[in-house]
Amino acid sequence: MTKNESVFLAKSTIKAADLTHRQKINFNIGKYNEAVPKGKSQFADLPSLRKKAKNTKWRAIENLGVWLEMFENKMTENGATVLWAQDADEAQQLIGDICKKKNCRLLVKSKSMVTEEIHLNHYLESNGIESVETDLGEYIQQLDGEPPYHIVTPAMHKSKEDVAKLFEKKLGTAPGLLPEQITLLARKKLREKFVQAEIGVTGANFLIADTGSIAITENEGNARLTTAWPKTHIVIAGIEKILPSLQDLALFWPLLSSFGTGQPLTVYSSIISGPKKENETDGPEEMFVILLDNGRTNILKNPAVRESLYCIRCGSCLNACPVYKNIGGHSYSTTYSGPIGSVITPHLQKMQDFKHLSYASSLCGNCTEACPVNIQLHTLLLENRRESVEEHLATFSEKMAWKAWRIASLRRSMMNTGSAALKNKVVNSLFKNWSKHRSPLVFTKKTFNEMWKEKLKKDH
Fold first, then answer.
1. 3-state class percentages of the chain: helix first, strand second, coil last, to nearest 5
2. C-beta of residue 322 within 8 angstroms of C-beta of residue 364
3. Exposure on the CB side of residue 367, measured as CA atoms within 13 A
4. CATH superfamily of this structure's domain 42-294
5. Would you say the pTM of this structure is higher than 0.70?
6. 215 — phi, psi (to 5°)?
């Protein structure tokens, strides 16, 4: 058992038994479950739109090199500088070099899970640069020294009382602040940071190839302030975020908002095509776009799991997953949690370190049903399991146990032999670790085959 697997089992065991945690998650996800069906109702033919979205992403990913080159050329024509990063270290170095050149001491950040992926905050702090999260949920998590809990709702696991206590502890506020008071206080503090920051860093929901633009959608306006106030704007996005045409946003923006939060359209939707021009008063003087690989080409070259690059990070699969709702986002110890995280993390990093995530699933298929671009997530989880076996990552005892199970299950005489108590003892001894985190395997007193034979005798 790897260290990552041990940590996952320890964290998930604790969280699964934490009824307070489960109550908070079920309450917050319940709000999404109420809103999302209403958001979906705006679509007259949702299955056809999901199919169209999947086909568009297929076209984008299958011709990824072509679209990325077009994006680079167009964005360069628009006055921005496009940079390429092979991995997290290279991305950090590129951002660090820009910060050094601009004598940056304060940086504001918005809308970017990728910066969590490359651990940018830690890197900047180690180089004497203050990095401030400006999304309220991210800001709360940063104050608490925690990573985001959820792709869309970073502080989903915290109640309003938890946040009030955190503000009292970290910011010295009065105890028991109401949500409105917390929001106003955060807005006041963050607006001071927007004005003072030399650099603003954002991600991108989508990269638009034919116009050389980035598309950002948000609900708080903090991304607009991050891109407008500082003199330098750095965008960092995964290469899979590409869309061929600006026209594609007419489909993807409503899908993202409806499946993510249940809104017909997110409050603030921005298209940014380079730094400000000579006749413009708003916007940064310089803009850099960093296109990050960091393991994505590992997925690209694997046809069996390439489909996972279609993900638009709406978070709907997390909200649908019964495992996620019981163990929470932090149990995964990865940037991307839930079903999509379990699919892509073993390929973005190492299969041997994260193969256990693909087994932490009921394979109920609810994640696939919830996906706006119809990614077959439950099938990809099975594919990861297959690949882990092909890479000889299963233990000898595990392989022998399943071999014995296969031999027995394919022989009716063996399955009908012995009492249920004896079978229970043998099987639960064979799979020793099964009942540590699951209910024991229990056989019925009679097999279905035996009951069927008895029924036929009675009928005749």
1. 55, 10, 30
2. yes
3. 29
4. NagB/RpiA/CoA transferase-like (3.40.50.10420)
5. yes
6. -115, 125
CB 321 within 8 A of CB 338: yes
Give the Cα separation of 159 and 229 in Å (integer): 32
Question: Which is nearest to 108 in space by CA: 74, 139, 144, 151?
Answer: 139
* Cβ burial, residue 269 (10 Å; 0-12/13-18/19+): middle
Element (H, E) at 297: helix 296-300
Tens digit of pLDDT for each residue in 329-340?
999 999 999 999
The two three-digit tokens of residue 230, written as one number: 């500082």
Angle between helices 19-40 and 3-16 (to 10 degrees): 90
User: Which residue ranges make up each domain of the chain?
Assistant: 42-294, 400-459
Spatial CA neighbour of 110 closest among 180, 202, 48, 184: 202
Q: Which residues pair with 109 in a beta bridge?
A: 133, 201
Nearest alpha-carbon partner for 235 in 257, 208, 266, 258: 208
**C-alpha dist (Å) from residue 156 to 6, 137, 142, 210, 410:** 25, 8, 14, 36, 46
Q: Where are the beta strands (DSSP E) in 230-336?
A: 232-238, 242-243, 268-272, 286-292
Place of tokens 């670790």: 433
Of 204, 247, 175, the closest CA to residue 82 belongs to 204
pLDDT tens digits for range 25-65: 999 999 999 999 999 999 999 999 999 999 999 999 999 99
Tokens 């005749």 belong to 460
Looking at residue 112, its pLDDT comes to 86
DSSP code string of 9-68: HHHHHHHHT-HHHHHHHHHHHHHHHHHHHHHHTT-SSHHHHHHHHHHHHHHHHHTHHHHH
The answer to whether 43 and 49 have CB atoms below 8 angstroms apart is: yes
Edge to edge, the sheet with strand 199-202 lists 81-85, 286-292, 232-238, 199-202, 106-110, 130-133
- Angstrom distances, CA of residue 423 to CA of 234, 429, 441: 62, 10, 9
